[in-house]
């Protein structure tokens, strides 16, 4: 895999939401089949959508080469949005917006329970059903910014059909590392794997904002610089 694609895949792999889903699934009784179903669903939809996007880009001719207008404009646009996200997170704009939406007094609505405050995805994954987890994974694992840029890079490269498929699959295998490694770990050292995932998830939860700021800033600077260099 080209170095630039590998860098984008590693950026996409550091996805705290994925690790949170893995930690939740590992807390269930049937953790191995549930995690396998989640990984299968995520890889299925991500690879299928990725191949479809690459085919669409190549068929439309929108990005004929790495130095085409659409290519560098995409880099600058996505990079600019990533930098804006980093600034918004650093200045806690999202926190202020949530505070404005709260009822007067800052309390939860009457009758609200802990279960209703949990994200819908977590409530679905906690049901412990392999088919439900597989279907939920299809809906949850939609392409993110780094993956979309990676697909654009694959589309503008001089690759045959086999090369495109190999690159999209390789990108996804790297991107889903946080689910693949625990699945392998369950077969080797299940209890230690669960403990490590819980610990890692706790660390990601406590440092999620800083991680998101750094990843968004790094991705933004990289894409803007690359786009300007190709303009």
Give the CA-based shape: globular
Task: Give the H and E element order.
Answer: HHHHHHHHHHHHH
Query: Would you count the extended β strands for me?
Result: 0
Proportion of residues in helical segments: over 70%
Radius of gyration using CA atoms only:
19 Å
Distance from N terminus to C terminus (CA atoms, Å) equals 25 Å
SSE-based structural type? mainly alpha
Q: What percentage of amino acids are in beta strands?
A: under 5%
Q: How many helices?
A: 13
Mean pLDDT: 84
Low-pLDDT segments, ≥5 res: 109-116
Largest sheet: none
Can you describe this structure?
It is a single chain. The chain is mainly α. The radius of gyration is 19 Å and the shape is globular. It has helices spanning 3-13, 16-26, 31-60, 69-90, 93-101, 114-117, 120-125, 130-140, 145-156, 161-175, 177-188, 190-206, 208-230. The protein has 13 helices and no strands. Helix 1 (3-13) runs antiparallel to helix 9 and helix 3 (31-60) runs parallel beside helix 8.
Write the SSE topology.
Blueprint: H1 3-13, H2 16-26, H3 31-60, H4 69-90, H5 93-101, H6 114-117, H7 120-125, H8 130-140, H9 145-156, H10 161-175, H11 177-188, H12 190-206, H13 208-230
Offer a quick outline of the entry.
With 231 residues, this protein is an all-alpha fold. Helix content is 79%, strand content 0%.
């Amino acid at each position: 895999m080209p170095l630039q694609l590998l860098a984008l895949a590693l950026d996409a792999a550091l996805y705290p939401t994925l690790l949170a889903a893995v930690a939740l699934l590992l807390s269930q009784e049937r953790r191995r089949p549930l995690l396998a179903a989640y990984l299968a669903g995520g890889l299925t939809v991500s690879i299928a959508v990725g191949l479809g996007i690459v085919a669409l880009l190549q068929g439309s001719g929108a990005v004929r080469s790495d130095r085409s207008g659409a290519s560098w404009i995409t880099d600058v646009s996505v990079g600019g949005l990533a930098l804006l996200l980093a600034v918004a997170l650093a200045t806690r704009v999202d926190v202020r917006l949530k505070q404005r939406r709260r009822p007067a007094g800052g309390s939860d609505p009457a009758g609200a329970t802990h279960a209703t405050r949990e994200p819908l995805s977590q409530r679905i994954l906690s049901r412990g059903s392999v088919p439900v987890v597989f279907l939920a994974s299809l809906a949850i694992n939609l392409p993110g910014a780094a993956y979309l840029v990676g697909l654009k890079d694959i589309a503008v490269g001089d690759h045959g059909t086999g090369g495109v498929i190999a690159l999209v699959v390789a990108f996804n295998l790297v991107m889903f590392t946080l689910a693949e490694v625990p699945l392998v770990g369950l077969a080797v050292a299940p209890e230690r794997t669960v403990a490590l995932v819980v610990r890692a998830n706790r660390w990601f939860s406590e440092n999620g904002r800083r991680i998101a700021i750094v990843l968004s800033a790094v991705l933004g600077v990289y894409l803007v610089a690359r786009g300007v260099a190709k303009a």
